[in-house]
Each structure stands twice: as structure tokens, then as C-alpha cells.
Amino acid sequence: MLAFVIRRLAQAVLVMLAVGFVAFSMFRYIGDPVGNMMGQEATLADRAEATRRLGLDQRATDEGCLRIDDHQRSATRMRALYQFMSALVASEMAR
Fold first, then answer.
1. pLDDT tens-digit profile of 42-52?
2. 3-state secondary structure labels for all residues of the chain
3. Is 0.70 topped by the overall pTM?
4. Nearest-5° angle of CA 17, CA 22, CA 28?
5. Would you say the C-alpha torsion 25, 26, 30, 35 has a positive or negative sign?
6. 10 Å Cβ neighbour count for 3?
7. For residue 36, which of 47, 26, 25 has the smallest C-alpha distance?
8. 51-62 residues labelled b (16+ CB within 10 A) or e (exposed)
9. Please, which residues have CB within 8 angstroms of residue 54's CB and are 6 or more apart in sequence?
10. Residue 63 confidence (pLDDT) above 60
């Protein structure tokens, strides 16, 4: 049973990596995300600034690493928010 669970977890990790790679590739190489976000009335300077802010001016490998780092930071922030909210609720319940 343990071998089955480990095998299924390994398969799940591989599927998540494959889906992430396909999604990243689609967003990176199909279409222009800055053009879709800003519309036709945006100036070239506005587009360049948005491209820089989103990190789309970097190599694809660097951008992918930045996205992973952003997700890790977001998860850390969510854990901190959860702990704060739990402490707040606990203090309100103690009253």
C-alpha cells in the first residue's frame, strides 16, 4: 500500500511539472500578454515599462525561476496571514 501511495505521489508531481511547463510555454510563446493587458491605445513606453515590470524582458529560464520564487513568497505570505488570522480568532474567542 505504501508503494502505491509513493508511486501515485511521484506521478502527481510529474503531471504538475508537465502541466506547469506547458502552461508556461503557452503564455510565453503564444500571443503577447502585454498587448492583451494594455490594449491598442498604449504607447511604446507604456508597453516597455509593463514588459519590464512583468519580467518578460528576461530569458525564459530566468523568468521561470522568478515565477517559482514568486510562488514561494506568496505561499509564505499566505501561511503568515493564516497564522495571524488564527491568532486573531483565538484571541477573540478567549474574550
1. 888 988 888 88
2. CHHHHHHHHHHHHHHHHHHHHHHHHHHHHCCCHHHHHHCCCCCHHHHHHHHHHHCCCCCHHHHHHHHHHHHHHHHHHHHHHHHHHHHHHHHHHHC
3. no
4. 120
5. negative
6. 7
7. 47
8. beeeeeeeeeee
9. 33, 34
10. no
